[in-house]
Design brief:
about 110 residues, mainly alpha, 2 domains, about 70% helix
């Protein structure tokens, strides 16, 4: 590999410290650090690709942002997850109409 992606030692130390919550389970402890390192490396590669697209392929900033968002989609909000769960329960006749409407209106009133 000609251009290795290596996290700074301070960041690796931070991951080890954060992994302390798993110290009773060595497998989970090491899995946590390995996962953080893999995610950091993938993020660095994605940023490098975005920079390449801006410089060499003449992509506009908005296109690069869309590329980033496509590769790192945000998980649905808790509000959206709750609405989806509520709709699924309603479709399975697990709750009555009044309860469904009350909960749905409350969830929809929450900020997105």
């Amino acid at each position: 590999m000609t251009n290795p992606i290596t996290p700074p030692p301070e960041l690796v130390q931070q991951w080890w410290e954060q992994a302390d919550q798993y110290q009773d389970d060595p497998k989970t402890y090491f899995d946590y650090v390995a996962t953080e390192a893999a995610q950091w490396g993938a993020d660095q590669e994605l940023l490098a690709c975005g920079n390449y697209l801006k410089q060499c392929a003449q992509w506009e900033e908005e296109d690069v942002t869309e590329f980033y968002n496509y590769r790192r989609p945000k998980p649905p909000s808790l509000r959206l997850q709750a609405l989806n769960d509520l709709n699924a329960a309603y479709n399975e006749d697990a709750i009555d109409d009044t309860t469904y409407c009350n909960i749905r209106r409350a969830l929809e009133a929450l900020p997105k």
